[in-house]
Amino acid sequence: METAESIKNLVKEKYAAIAAQSTAENKSSCCGAGGCSTEVYSIMSDDYSKLEGYHEGADLGLGCGLPTEFAQIKKGDTVFDLGSGAGNDCFVARSLVGETGKVVGIDMTETMIEKARENAEKLNFHNVEFRLGEIEKIPSGPERADVIVSNCVLNLVPDKAKAFAELFRVLKTGGHFSISDVVLQGELPQALKSASEMYVGCVAGATQLDEYLSIIKAAGFTNIKIQKEKTILIPDDILIAYLTPTEIETMKQNNAKILSITVYAEKETSCCNKDVCCK
What we know:
Shape: globular
Number of strands: 10
């Protein structure tokens, strides 16, 4: 049984290696985790290239959505990107917050932080900073972010309840998040769920959709809604490394689904006066 600490070390080790890979290598695997496919399409990531603020050198092809597209970011906002990698979502967010806003990227892998800082320096961005830290213990005081985004990262966190409690802590009252992540519907074969490569590849660590939404609600968030959903199809030439042909066929017949969702939720504003108090 993998411990939370061993999982984190595994993720750090793999993502340090990913930082040195090309975008093409990352896009042809499951969240950059390896197991390259002969299929010529991106398994999880969406196309960022048409978004304002996009910079190819910061795109490692590790995402499973476009959270900034749905995050309702405004000029002057402070935005936190959790699991910021080489800075891709941070730089897109910067184009939305403008010169009066601020973007903070947080990642637990030192190599990724170094790569993101190098990218920001090359681009001469002064209102984007990158901090080394874990999502379960975000390096920030309370009520600092107007908006939080994250792209295919929360599924890697062993203690998701603690992670979402941290999101709630650092969000300002009235703030919100938009997170792209991988979830499940139905049971995957045990061999796939226990494969360390598939954990780093965002599959084995994924939570059932209903449980995922329940964790968000239990953390105190309101107005929870799915902004986008798509089914992730892992090619047979990757699955065959972990499953027998019979197990692959059974998985398909059982209609077990790996989904990419973009989910939105708010930290509700409190309002009180002498006549009424509402939460």
